[in-house]
Amino acid sequence: MARRRLDGGWEVPPSAFATDEQDRLRGRVRMLNGALEGGMEGWTLPVEQWELLREVILDVVDDADPERGALLKTIVATTQARLGDHPAFPGGRLTNFARYVKVDLEGRGLLQVVPGSSPQRVRRPR
Fold it and tell me: Which one-letter DSSP state was computed for residue 12?
């Protein structure tokens, strides 16, 4: 069963990180999700796509107020604006990719949902 961390996020078991390491040898990144049994999704993203999305998401969060965090809708809109024309995303629509990578970054301990925020906000962990 999934367990909560002290910062309010979900704990991802070491086995999920080990699976991610194996997937990276194939040029893929396993999507982590601490709210799921086993701590991971059943699918992967190409490393290039994941790295591009990670960079934009963390830039948006780092530019936001560190206490209040960044609105999820701002993260999604900025990701679309910056990467919608990028050749790594031939479909051009990034809404779901941005949301999935945001959850993945929470599982990796790089982001946390601001408790009680509505609409949802995320920030760097404390």
Answer: P
- Mapped onto helix, strand or coil, the DSSP state of residue 100 is helix
Pair type for strands 70-71 and 121-123: antiparallel
For residue 27, what are the CA distances in angstroms to 9, 49, 125? 27, 10, 28
Residue type, 52: L
pTM: 0.92
Q: Which residues contact 15 (CB under 8 A, 6 or more apart)?
A: 38, 39
Q: Give the number of other Cβ atoms within 10 Å of residue 96's Cβ.
A: 9
Per-residue pLDDT of the chain (126 residues; tens, 9 = 90+): 455 555 556 689 999 999 999 999 999 999 999 888 899 999 999 999 999 999 999 999 999 999 999 999 999 999 999 999 999 999 888 999 999 999 999 999 999 999 999 999 999 998
Alpha-carbon distances of 97 from 4, 34, 50, 77, rounded to whole Å: 24, 17, 9, 12
